[in-house]
Records
---
Amino acid sequence: MHLCDFNISNLRCISQTSVELDKGINLIIGENGSGKTSFLEGIYLLATGKSFSAVKRRDLIRDGTCRMGVAGVFVSSFGLESKIKLEKSYSETNYTLQGQSVRKTSDVAAKIPILVGNSRAADLLTDSPKARRDLLDRTAFHVKPSFLSIWQELRRALAQRNNVLKSGYSSNQLCYWDKLVSEKSNEMDAYRKEIVDKVNYFLTKSTLKEELGDVSFDYYSGWDTNFPLLQHLTSNRESESRIGYTLYGAHRADLRIRVAGKSGAKRLSKGQLKSVAFESIIALHEYISENGPAKPIFLVDDLSAELDNVKQRRLIGKILRLSGQKVLSSIQPDIMEFLDNEGHKVFHVKQGKIT
Ligand SMILES: Nc1ncnc2c1ncn2[C@@H]1O[C@H](COP(=O)(O)OP(=O)(O)OP(=O)(O)O)[C@@H](O)[C@H]1O
Ligand SMILES: [Mg+2]
């Protein structure tokens, strides 16, 4: 999958731009504040309907205007085109795929695999489990088409179960939801475990081992797997009804990084966290590329911060060798040294203008 024609209007500092991206490597070069992150943000917004930097709606819209828009054509490896358009005003969002309104952003996100490596990547390892679960689940969406519906069914079942718990539960009503939460959690759990095993395998092949020792993720299912989930759900109803939500299930899963036999990200320096986070995202990229129907688009913003020269060069080299479309931003024109004769385009950004 790659993004071909791409148009932006009134997104942050970018007033109007129209580019044709390369299906291989794209470098976006410009000084601080020129609009590099805004450009990558535009691609991510188009592919997911969401901001990767959690920028609020009003800050996405260029000052002095009342509406931003991104539009583009994603092309699959079989040449099938998906025309997507997203417009946001201060109060409305209009998101369309092939001219039809998109009801759920996850429907588009499941079609277009996209990964981001930016200055927030390291937070993935230290933030709450939700960010890691979401990344794992998005990976599953891209590889197993049925994962999305399992995930949606679990969310619906949990919402219903929580409602019953809050309204003074009856065992009869809960039995049905307990079974459904247990069934869907177990299906998600099997998918997720498979991904984590593969990611750990790719991590053993990375150069992290030389730098830090063995690096891998420990996966927690969201319940003590020595006992069936159904048993946890039926035996904890009383405590769950007091707090009004379900304590056990796939929605409580987590991934924790283990480095040289020690669990937890807090022990790592900022640069080490960034290396581990980027290698983990690269491992997800390799997993999706090998197992999914489409190769991911990889957006890399601000790779250099906190990494020494050797690590920067090693990671950039590795990212550029990945299959699929890559869009990398840099303040340093010397990133062009990495380019060989393979397909690439270089864009220069200055005060929101892209040439
Ligand atoms: N809503 C907005 N309207 C106009 N300009 C904005 C808006 N939001 C942000 N900007 C400005 O857009 C400019 C570009 O920001 P962006 O984050 O894209 O730069 P960058 O090239 O990634 O810089 P850096 O190298 O420092 O990361 C900044 O000067 C920022 O203040
Ligand atoms: Mg930036």
---
Amino acid sequence: MDLEIKFTDLLRDRNLKATPKRLELLTVIANYNSAIPYSELQKKLKHFDRVTLYRTLNALLDSGIIHKASVSTDDTYYAMCKEYCTTECHNHKHVHFKCVECLEVSCVDTTNTIQIQIPNVKIQQVDIEVSGVCEKCI
Ligand SMILES: [Zn+2]
Ligand SMILES: [Zn+2]
Ligand SMILES: [Zn+2]
């Protein structure tokens, strides 16, 4: 229940109505132990039709509540935004780690800071995907 109150506030803060579908989708993403693959969302939310799932995901992506943790040909992974992201900008300071064995994707903080600068441009978003073998699969 606490989670539902938290998400209701979060949605209202971004001028989104706290609809039952949005709350349900957020709860599923938040309760998953790593970034959730789209195929898993479809399984857990069978009562959502394709269009509803797509629209609900996009509303949350556009408002800085969730982000795509990894996009591959096989699946797209979604995760909650930990940092304060807004409707204008996703401001992530973490990287995405994908295990080549179990295909799990997680949002992880690096032990060193990553500074990327490109001359003459204003960077709005940096996506870094790192792959390897996770501690469970080593
Ligand atoms: Zn974000
Ligand atoms: Zn693994
Ligand atoms: Zn992430």
